[in-house]
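PROTOCOL LOG
Step 1. Enter all chains and additional molecules of the complex.
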Amino acid sequence: MNIYFACSITGGREFEPVYQDLTKALLADGHDVPTAHLAASNVVSLEAVVDPHEVYERDVNWIRAARAVVAEVSVPSHGVGYEIGFALDAGKPVLCLLQEGRKVSKMISGNSHPHLQLKAYRDSAQAVELMQKFLAELK
Amino acid sequence: MNIYFACSITGGREFEPVYQDLTKALLADGHDVPTAHLAASNVVSLEAVVDPHEVYERDVNWIRAARAVVAEVSVPSHGVGYEIGFALDAGKPVLCLLQEGRKVSKMISGNSHPHLQLKAYRDSAQAVELMQKFLAELK
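Step 2. Run joint prediction.
Step 3. Record the structure below.
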């Protein structure tokens, strides 16, 4: 499936190892992941050279083309919050993954949109399992 | 006018003094600001006792009822990112205020939606001026 993976870039990269485990698992399972490069350690410098309008248009077009969105939400991010709303408006199923003990905005945790799921995970391995279960149920 | 003021809550309160100057100015200018309490120092504990679904429904209904949205975006926030997208979809003019030297997601800075403005400010006083100019032009 074509999957849009959303994670914090400007907002902070503390969870980069989790982003990498999630995108690696998606690619290993044969999914198309146009944003897989957003998990890489050099993404902040790579994305800095791209025109902001090009990034915006690229990303919303990727969301439109995706079957579903997987968002890691342990670190606050305007971009990820915006993308979650955009994806729900576009009718895409959205899985938000949050590390246990972290807090996320009530605009996410209190959002009862039928296409939105929020799941807490202990470690990367469990985050991958939750993502795989979410995607298996879409088939 | 009825103005929806958006700021980070769960994401971090570093800019609370700016939020307070902005909401004070809005109220002093005679605007209705249903979210003015979100600028207060005790908001995190106050909002913690409210059911997340109630907060979500309350906030999106306030956005729907607002003439415009003013969002302080210097601190990353899923909620504010979501609200900006929600407001644009609802046809509301949105002003994003960013402290000079701070970075914001390209989903905001690269977004060429005709109802979205992003302005950088040096200090609270200039942020208030930019907000007042934005609102004056809506009349």
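Step 4. Note key features.
The radius of gyration of chain B is 14 Å.
Chain B touches chain A at residues 8-12, 47, 50-57, 59, 73, 75-86, 89, 103-112 (CB under 8 Å).
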